[in-house]
Fold these 3 entries.
Entry 1:
Amino acid sequence: MARFNNSISSMIACLATVFALPAACAQESNDSLEDQDQTSRAVAFVGRFCLDCHSGQQPEADLNLESFRFASDIGRQIKTWNKVLQRVGDMQMPPTDSLQPDMLERKVFLDWARSTVQQTLCGGPVSPGPPRVRRLSRFEYSNTLHDLLGIAVDTSQVLPEDGAGGEGFDNASETLFISPIHAEKYMESAKAALDYAMNDPPTRPALLVAAPTQSLSPEAAAQQVLDRFLLLAFRRAITPEERQSYLDLFAAALEQQPEFSLAIRYPLEAAVVSPKFLFLWEEPCHSEQPELISQYEMASRLSYFLWATMPDKTLLDLADQGKLHDPEILREQ
């Protein structure tokens, strides 16, 4: 009997689900009809109040709204519709000498358009966009040279001023381009800072962490110096190819200048004028799906955001250990 009752209960539940389906479909259909009705009213609003100026071969302000027929059209013209929203909301559209909607019509249109823009932007998958390469600002550059070389010299005073972006920040990527005068001044500054560090007794040992001995060849000593220096200068682990290119430069210099401290200066100088030092850049995403930035890229983002300088040993160690995607670790920084 219990088994029979259970069967009856299951059948009732199943039938209830089946009978509920048309209602659910009807609700979905009603929602769809309501969306279509709102879109139709928005199209009518545009046709009545906007197309006199914004249609034809020469639309006002190069804004042609003739093609607007469906909500999906907004998704293809987000920037355009942001302008429409702003101008309709600020009572600039329609112009005062044109037919005007009443306040309710204006509000209904704005509410629908804002909601549609928001759904378009937020309803789809996350799209972080391409990484933006930017030069270190002169303040960041000075701080980075200070921390890399261990010198108490402010090099920012000899560098050209950085233009502020539209938001007022001096580290906006669109303003941190590289001009011939920037390149010249940054190279002069880097060489002067390296000269100071190489000739300063307190900082020189921290820079030249190895030197040739009877048991350590000049090439092996140079590799120890460069492995440490390039990791800090490029703010990431270096590739074998990068290491070899700087070792080749050292070897060529050593042939011309047998003294180790003078020969090692050439690859060090090449590093501090390299774009890999001067620019903040991240590997582009080659997948259609968003990917996390690398551990070392996260270290640089944190460091330049919080302190406007290169990652310290703690951050680089955490990056090397693969821990900088851990929320708890990030909160501790």
Entry 2:
Amino acid sequence: MDAALKRHPLLVTALAPVIPHLLGSAFNIWYNMTVVDPLLIAAGLKQRFIDTVIVWNPIAYLAAVAIWTYLILSLRPAFQRLRRAENVPADQLNRDRRRLVHLPWYGAAISGASWLLGAIAFLVSLAITGRPMNAQLFWHLPISFGISGFIATTQGFFVIEWATQWGLFPLFFQDARPDRLKGIRPISLRMRGFMWAVSASVCPIGSLLLLLFAPPSPGTNPLLFGVFVGVIGVAFALFSALLIGRSVAEPVDELREAAQAVTQGRLDVQVPLRRADEFGALIGEFNLMVTGLREKEQLRQTFGAHVGRKAAEEILTRDPGLGGTEQEITVMFVDIRSF
């Protein structure tokens, strides 16, 4: 996967939301077949549900794919020019950089809107038939779309973020720091922790509570069904935690190894990660610090070759600045006869 990400980073980023949405759709289909289908008792409701699936799914998926494809293709001109080491106009490059940083948010917005509108569309489609609807449908259809949408949106967000940071950031931010880009709203560490808490606890527990208060669907065992949904929620929560943990642990490990190298006297190390969050700022400042230490060491060695290392260190340590200093000194002149 890492090799494919390096060879085709734009394609991998474009395909990043596919698996999360397939998993969300699989849960949605299973839930509808198991819980919702037995509730479609009135004549014509089941056929209307099938017709809505046939009409809504192509519309929703095509619209979401079209918007997502447009966002990805908008990065392609700059991507190709950067790969060929060609110059990209500054305004275009900054615009594409901002779009790249916000790409996970765009993906989450597209996904969340699609699932939310899907729940509304199915309820409205069934309601306008004029046939009596089981009240449980107003519980279970939103639960079906809500849990499925949560799976697709959260997992898609983190996978897109991973793909952009490892595949596209090194190219688009070769000579710039993402954290210093103006007009961006990257996900902060606090927000990342909040999303993990929601993913790991609130959503699985919330799903179980919804199932607890929702009237049981005919033909289902509420206890076993609730346990199954809870297990699925916890599994995806753990996967979210794995992705979040990797995004936090990796820069910490990189910084730790680089710091150890500096303590051993290696001043040529640089942390190559490109991040737009707090880790990006920390990594950028660390790299600047190491660069400053390296330049100071080079100056000390060069200066010390002419005035002596001890004198050079004292001058560099005191750093009188451009204004200079006034001191009383004693100078001894010695003339060696016949030298």
Entry 3:
Amino acid sequence: MSEGESKFGFKDMEKALETLKLLEDHDMQYRKLTVRGLLGRAKRVLTLTKAEEKLKNINEAIGVFEKWLEDNGGGASSKNAKTDNEDKVETVPGLGFKDKAAAEATLSILAERDPDYQRLAIKGLIGSSKRVLSGTKNEDKINSIKEGVQVLEDFLEKFEAENRIKENRAYLAYAVVSKLPEPKEDLSVEFLAAYGGSKAKGNYKHLRTMYPKEDDTTSWDIVRNRQIAKLLEQIKSEEAKLFDSESGEPTDLHLQLIHWAYTPQPDKVKAYVEKLAKKTPQKRKPESSNNSNSSSANDSSSDDSDDSVPKKKKRE
């Protein structure tokens, strides 16, 4: 490990900014991979940390990394599916900070959305407000903006204090979900069609502005979070297992969860999918042979049929 790499870290905002500075000497792909890796580690550390000061410092570092990734097309979370697509993601409409009412409306719009997006959006608005304030001279406007920003800052402070980021349900990549049995529930079928469809193309960020056919007021990201919450509660109340102890395949209830692009054990699910992929070629060989035999049998049957036609004609 080089001297520069040994200085990478996420203990606080200053360390995160220093890390980004050190990474400027590397190519963009390396920078994105490193930042994603640090984000993943930081979020794991958060789940084990109880000291409020440490939580606050690490959360600030996470905010720096997430903002950098968002600005550089690298996605908001190392745990989420890769979204380095060139397609432009629509902004969730209605977010603002011009006054207290606008800020409260913003919090209402963000309610039930992914916690990592809530934090990212709020921090982005607070940052934008500072730029707007620096160019505003009207005292009434300044006071209104400050009142709006205060609402957002209060929310963010509570968000960090309660460590709500732990409630984030990172998206399982569509490429993984699509290799497992298809869902039976119509809503799950429609969700996956949207997630892997021509607009989203596996980029979960698009789901924030996409809606089910029967509900044009509740976006797919909110629908997803509601469904996941129900299933997790059912799994908890039934003390249900996530994997079959013998085959290692996801249980039916776990599969329902996966159909909403979420699993508490993504690595194990990915390993199972990889295992399936390795088995597939071995299973197809005898099928190919059978198909060949079947084809030969069909050809033979066809030949017999052809032979019988002229015979009948001769008899006539």
